[in-house]
Amino acid sequence: MTTDLRIGVVGAGAMGSDHIARITRRISGAVVSAVVEPDRGRAEAAAVNAPGAQAFSNIEDAISADAVDAVLIAVPGQFHEPVLVPALEAGLPILCEKPLTPDPESSWSILEREQKLDRPHIQVGFMRRFDAEYAALRTLVESGESGELMMLRCAHRNPSVPASYTQTMLITDSVVHEFDVAPWLAGSPVKTVEVKYPRRNSLSPEGLREPILVIMELENGVLVDVEMNVSVQFGYQVATEAVFEKGLARIGQPAGLQTWREGAFSVADHMSFTTRFAAAYDTQIQRWVDAVHKGTLVDGPNAWDGYLVALSCEAGVKALDGGVIAIEAPERPAFYA
Ligand code: ISE
Q: Is there an atom of ligand 1 within 6 Å of 177 CB?
């Protein structure tokens, strides 16, 4: 029998506490051994779901106390680098919530540090790759059964966003997922990014100009459009229609409880990504834990994928001001082959 992997969760906000509860209740082969969170209130609230975990206010202390075998980073993206660096220096396996870091330069410097180790240690939390429907769509693309893929038509709708959500976050916090998953589905990296603005939703928070339509051209000629819409009020939806030479495929349609009453038919849908992707998050963390036990350390998107997404986000943010922005990616280091 293997000993449980001792995970230090860094950040006990919404996502971190969701992961803490999931590791404790639903993941096998792992325990939350440390919660790293400077905010005492958050740390205490999270501790309820992590019996026996030690509390630390920074990652360095958790590492020097030898309290962790692996690190799950769930603080906002701008705070990832100061956690990634000591965790890499300690040679620990890392699951880092998206994005790897907020810009290509800092992501590149993380890649340089990681390459000093014997093998990749960082998995990036692009959880959509672990969603059963996304996986089925990828299998369909690879099988060629419907012919070549030509277009991906994506809708990414949030009921609302917090007051702290800014215009660039439409790209860096939301479309960031499509920048990872569309190339993964289509088997080709992003070549150009363009953003178009339809009429503004009058219900959008002040200062936000949205929805937006993001158009990506992939290196293999597949076109991807993403309706990014964060004030839809009615629910949380992430749906994709894939257009093939001789077929169509759709994922992300509501599949909840169907009711028919008083002359109206309805299907229950999600209100948040935490429920919509709950099973994907479970699978992602279970597979990461299993990979760490096996010694492969990563089973999913790695730091190189995180770097490519950082390049796409940089292009996407530029495209918010107009133009078709091209992406020039360097060659992938052999370390990530
Ligand atoms: C949020 O941070 C996420 O990662 C969700 O998956 C995404 O749908 C949402 O737009 C983001 O704000």
A: yes
Question: 194 pairs with which residues across the strands?
Answer: 215, 324
Residue with CA closest to ligand 1 atom 2: 173
Ligand 1 pocket member 174 (CB < 6 A):
yes
Residue 47 has pLDDT above 90, yes or no: no
The rounded distance, in Å, linking the Cα atoms of 72 and 234 is 32
* Number of Cβ atoms within 10 Å of the Cβ of 266: 12
Peptide bond between residue 211 and the one before it cis (omega within 30 degrees of 0)? yes
- CA–centroid distance, 12 to ligand 1, in Å, is 17
Q: Check residue 1 and give its pLDDT.
A: 60
Atom 3 (ligand 1): residue with closest C-alpha? 174
Atom of ligand 1 nearest to the CA of 98: 4
Q: Ligand 1 pocket, 273 CB below 6 A?
A: yes
139 in Cβ contact with 44 (< 8 Å): no
What's 274's DSSP letter? H
Mean pLDDT of 287-292: 98
Rounded to the nearest whole angstrom, what is the distance from the C-alpha of residue 99 to the centroid of ligand 1?
A: 11
Say how many Å lie between the CA of residue 250 and the centre of ligand 1: 21
pLDDT of 254 reads: 87
Of the candidates 229, 123, 224, 211, which has an alpha carbon nearest to the alpha carbon of residue 181? 224
Across residues 111-130, what is the average pLDDT?
Answer: 98
Tens digits of residue pLDDT in 154-167: 999 999 999 999 99
81 Cβ contact list (under 8 Å, min separation 6): 101, 106, 109, 110
84-94 per-position pLDDT tens digit:
999 999 999 99
Radius of gyration of the chain (CA): 20
Category of 219 on φ-ψ map: left (φ > 0), alpha (ψ -120 to 50) or beta: alpha
Instruction: Please report, for residues 196, 201, 243, 248, 337, the alpha-carbon distance to residue 141 in angstroms, rounded to integers and kept in the order given.
Output: 27, 34, 10, 11, 22
Q: How far is the CA of 273 from the centre of ligand 1 (A)?
A: 7
**CA 171 / ligand 1 centre spacing (Å):** 10
